[in-house]
Amino acid sequence: MSTSPDEELAQSADQDFDALRDRYRSERDKRLRADGNEQYVEVVGQFEHYVNDPYVDGPLEREALQEDVEVLVIGGGFGGLQAAARLRGVGVEDIRIVEKGGDFGGTWYWNRYPGAQCDIESYIYLPLLEELGYVPTEKYVRAREILDYSQSIGRHFDLYRGALFQTEVTGMRWDEEIDRWIVSTNRGDALRARFVTMANGPLNRPKLPGIPGIHDYKGHTFHTSRWDYDYTGGNPNGNLDRLSKKTIAVIGTGATAIQCVPFLGEAAKKLLVFQRTPSSVDVRGNSPTDAEWAADLQPGWHKHRMENFNGLVSGVPQSEDLVHDGWTDLIGKMVNRFKEASQAGKIDVPQIMEKANFDKMNEIRSRVDEFVDDPILAEKLKPYYPMFCKRPTFNDDYLPTFNRGNVELIDTNGKGVDRITEKGLVVAGVEYEVDCIIFATGFEVGTSYARRSGYEITGRNGVTLSKKWSEGMSSLHGMQSRGFPNCFLMHMSQAAFTANFPHLLEELTTHLSHVIGHALSEGYRTVEVSESAEEAWVETILEKGAGAMGALGGAECTPGYYNNEGQPNPGAARSAPYGGGSIEFFKLLADWRSEGSFQGLEFKT
Question: Is residue 120 part of a domain?
Fold first, then answer.
């Protein structure tokens, strides 16, 4: 029986997809490591200087505090600022924010490397825009504007009153006799807090690669989250004028390197970029904010735009794409695939989603050919894994940088750097001597909550959170865990995943302020999750499965922080985000609040 031209084309496409699946698996397999997250070195001891604050003139001198506070917020980034703002909204005046940096900003206080910008559209990424009456100046604003805006939030909601900067929490213990948390700090403080909100953030503790010999290198080093402008010269806009006679190595090719490499390539005598896994690099397409558009925005525009974006990246078609960027482009390809399948009378949803993902990643790989002159080099820069296995990146200057004569990609074929010597780095038996190593290696993600936060949380009967969660997380809605009354957590685990993390923070802070406001207004001393509610929520998480996060740990995904570096994690299923997706989770929280009975919580006077 003969086949039609259309059928022959479909068969050819399916054969290409089979080849891609095989390529994805082979790329994953050669990057798998038995040590998983243990491949990274904790920034303690001789590496402790990597977390010093280079942005303050010196240590802030103040007396140690021993006092009572209604609500203590740990962290002064977007999470802490949103939590405190929402608490102000329910009438809470007695708030202290503890922040290890010298000011508000969190990630955007630390990340001041050249080219740093948000990679989610600023009109949905920056929180509380309508409350402050602010519209960002660009579609993707620079780090300095985000830092300034964070400080504006602090001023608008009077959060500088009671803020403790350059202060790190060192311990947190529940005192049964007074029903308060005793929070200790590196300043000798002993703060007796009725409620504690943990806004430590998912990206706050730098990590270093555990490359053999990392202790031996005699040249200069720094981590991108503590950029050393004294060494490089210049500022976040570039002009790194002290590098003209330097050979620089960058380890890492993730979201940070994508942004700073073009500036280093422009300034350094020689730039070597050491790559284990290439990033997917899509169009940035930044543009100034249209003044007429901004003036015409109607009340509610911010939440509506966030929800439009979240719907699209969650695979839920919208009547229009308000953001229209590389994140939302994938849903357009899915819609086209659905139309083709409908016309053929055969709809297989997982297959359609997979093939749309292939379409998008083929587009990303074609873009490499468009911008990189050397075809052999271009092949090394192509990502062979499904979109969302790793965080997508967006930049118009990264790929062309490799056409420069002073820039060299050192591709490690998925293995990473073999070792570091006194003079440089070794890959495949070749030593590359460099003047400076810049670690663009990101932040800890898959390590324990206590390690990432930098302190242990001790609840009722002396039980630590690490002990309770040693075999997997247990909570209600990801925010409260039994045995740890009056303590609220803010993260994705057992909550929800969305590419736009401040949107999740908006929903979580609205929820926790509702609970805390109720407890304070009614005079309750404690609020705690019931045992049955916690067990039921854990069962819900397990029954729902990975859901929207499934692609992030799929069989073809290369190792990374989304999938615990490709290693099986016994507690991963319990610590997964809500499998029904963020849209369903946000509605679940809203319905829970509207129902009004505070189901699953135990209040005591």
Answer: yes
- On the CB side of 120, how many CA atoms lie within 13 Å of its CA? 18
User: Are 220 and 85 contained in the same domain?
Assistant: no
273 and 389 together in one domain: yes
Q: If the chain, 605 residues long, is cut into consecutive pieces of 10 residues, what is the mean pLDDT of each piece?
A: 42 69 92 72 73 87 96 97 98 96 95 95 98 98 97 98 95 97 97 96 73 92 94 96 98 95 98 96 95 97 96 86 87 73 75 85 95 98 91 95 98 94 97 97 65 84 94 94 97 92 97 98 97 97 68 64 62 85 96 97 96
Rounded to 5, what percent of the chain is helix, strand, coil?
A: 40, 15, 45
Show the domain range for 519. Answer: 66-203+447-604
Token pair 């189901």 is found at 599
* Alpha-carbon distances of 51 from 250, 572, 587, rounded to whole Å: 18, 28, 39
Q: Is residue 278 part of a domain?
A: yes
Are 451 and 432 within one domain? no
Establish if 301 belongs to a structural domain.
no
Exposure of 303 by Cβ count < 10 A (0-12 exposed, 13-18 middle, 19+ buried)? middle
Considering the entire predicted model, what is its pTM? 0.91
Parallel, antiparallel, or unpaired: how do β-strands 220-223 and 601-604 relate?
A: unpaired
Given this model, what pLDDT does residue 47 score? 74
Cα gap 309→286, rounded to integer Å? 17
Q: What are phi and psi of 47, to 5 degrees?
A: -100, 5
CATH number, domain of 368, equals 3.50.50.60
The residue among 414, 439, 464 that closes a domain is 439
Between the two ends of the chain, the Cα-to-Cα distance in Å is 80
Position 168, amino acid: E
- What would the pLDDT profile of 91-105 be if each residue is shown by its tens digit? 999 999 999 999 999
* Whole-number Å distance between alpha carbons of 417 and 301: 47
How many domains does the chain divide into?
A: 2
CA distance 60 to 29: 49
Neighbour count for residue 514 (Cβ, 10 Å): 17
Q: Is 517 exposed, middle or buried (0-12, 13-18, 19+ CB in 10 A)?
A: middle
Instruction: Summarize pLDDT for 150-193 with one digit per residue, the tens.
Output: 999 999 999 999 999 999 999 999 999 999 999 999 999 999 99
Which residue, among 164, 188, 186, has the nearest Cα to 74 in the 3D structure? 164
Residues 528, 480: Cα–Cα separation, whole Å: 7
